[in-house]
Design brief:
Strand order of the largest sheet: 1-6-2-3-4-5
Number of strands: 6
Shape: rod-shaped
Strand content: 25-35%
Radius of gyration: 27 Å
Helix content: 25-40%
Distance between the termini: 47 Å
Length: 132
């Protein structure tokens, strides 16, 4: 299956994200994140889906199994958020690449100032050839 350039670009841009720290209280609100990266006291990192906090316990799904973690055993909670800075840099970088490829293509086909058009005008190069 072949994706259009616009769809590919959209998927690439939407992938620009970072993991940001979050407080356990933010997992109690109605609009809580769907996925949370949990680091425990033994430095293990676990990804919880459908995470929620009740009392002093964080609960979520790990590998299709419900797991419970005491908040006192957690050293770090992170959620994935869009990174506008990375997205902007990616967009600028892609525009630079497209511009460079376009310039290179124009130059290699004789359409630039260093091609055949930099000298005297010759039919077929800078001037279109007209049938006789």
């Amino acid at each position: 299956m072949r994706l259009s350039p616009c769809v590919s670009f959209g998927m690439l841009v939407s992938a620009c994200s970072t993991l940001q720290p979050v407080q356990s209280a933010e997992l109690m609100v109605p609009n809580r994140p769907t996925r949370v990266w949990v680091t425990t006291l033994d430095r293990a990192t676990v990804v919880l889906d459908s995470a929620s906090v009740r009392g002093d316990t964080l609960t979520g799904i790990v590998n299709s199994q419900r797991e419970h973690f005491a908040l006192s055993d957690i050293t770090d909670l992170r959620v994935r958020e869009r990174s506008e800075g990375r997205t902007a840099l990616l967009g600028l970088g892609l525009m630079g690449v497209v511009g460079a490829v376009t310039l290179y293509t124009a130059e290699s086909q004789g359409g630039g100032a260093t091609g055949c058009c930099s000298g005297p005008l010759t039919p077929g190069c800078c001037l279109p050839e007209f049938p006789q």
